[in-house]
Here is the input.
Amino acid sequence: MKFALAQLKKNAYKEPFTFSETEDVSELEEMNNDIRHIGEVEVQGTCFFQGDNIIFSLRIHGEMVLPCARTLEDVHYPFAIQTDEVFTTSLYRSEAEIEAEIHPIDGEVLDLTPLIKENILLEVPYRVFSEEENSRLDYLTEGKGWQFTSEQNNAKSIDERFRKLESLFNKDEKND
Here is the structure.
């Protein structure tokens, strides 16, 4: 998503310039992250000038496919990001501007695509879980040397090793 600096000065100098476009960010799938699929995202924004600074207020929304942390099944994860990005046309930047993440503009074209991708990568959750009933039934319930039991099942079943001891308790009750 590129904007010519001359176009921005013409459209956004006196009043805010609004736009709504779609951006293909499928390159994120090839990076070393958990995103299995992401297509086009919708970017709505407002741009306005404040002195030497150009301020973009962006709303990015779309959907990415991530692996379920429990079953590795595909989970559709919708996202909506609200962010403000500040660019400067000034050739000289103070230390405060560098720390405040004010981006310099190189040349006559301002490209928002890298910042859109960066914000999407920051939005990827640490882990997601599938809500589908099928995925709950598909995960393993037992393996070699272990078995998944719930509280209800555990309370009803008696360990086979202790079954003989149970008969001792029954004999003591009869003697009383």
In short: The chain is about 30% helix and 35% strand.
